[in-house]
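Try it yourself: sequence plus uracil, in.
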Amino acid sequence: MNQTQKKVLRIIEDLKEHLSYLKLFGFQEIPVEIPSLENFKNDVSKKPLTNMSLTLSEIKEELGDCRRCKLFSTRTHIVFGVGNKNADIVFVGEGPGQEEDKQGVPFVGMAGQKLTDIIEKGMGLKRSDVYICNIVKCRPPNNRDPEKDEIDACSSFLEKQIKAINPKVIVALGKPASSTLLGRNVAITRERGTWHSFQGYQVMLTFHPAYLLRFYTEENRRLVWEDMKKALSAI
Ligand code: URA
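Structure, out:
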């Protein structure tokens, strides 16, 4: 039984004890305020209801010293993810680069600086407000695209991270992240700026920050800003 399940069990037991206590004092029923239920419904309307998800630390523990794919043999650090465990927005990138592999933290190299600028200067959030992770947790050699077997070996961890955070929006950065989340080949230049769904979570597709670094045009900046405004409107 995991920590969340234990917590729920404790709450049920406390509730049972409390109800028996009330019964002892002659209570036959418990008043329920309907408006508060309505508020609850409204509050969660943009999020799928998760059943017992693991916590991020439990997921990290399960990942352990991962050797589920060949990337383990060339990595320095596993790059699990960073940020607010209750974030409304989760950014999903492709895979760690050289600097990320060295530090064990996602998006800390040049593409990371661009992403941080998008989040902080563009969206007006703090980097620590959001959660940032990748479809693969170990660096592909020479920054090549992650291969299918590597993505497959890592995908259950990404899925568990998303369920643990339960965000309102996922932003998929670039083609590999978008294709992984949607389970099909995504044509990012055509499909960026459109809404999709991953297991009930809203997904906004946009360019990878490394693409912006390579093709730093007014038009590309404007397009990413349009996409981020859509993501912001959903939180
Ligand atoms: N590019 C990515 O996709 N992820 C990182 O963490 C860094 C660069």
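One thing you can check immediately is this: Strands lie at 82-83, 89-93, 131-134, 169-173, 195-198, 201-206.
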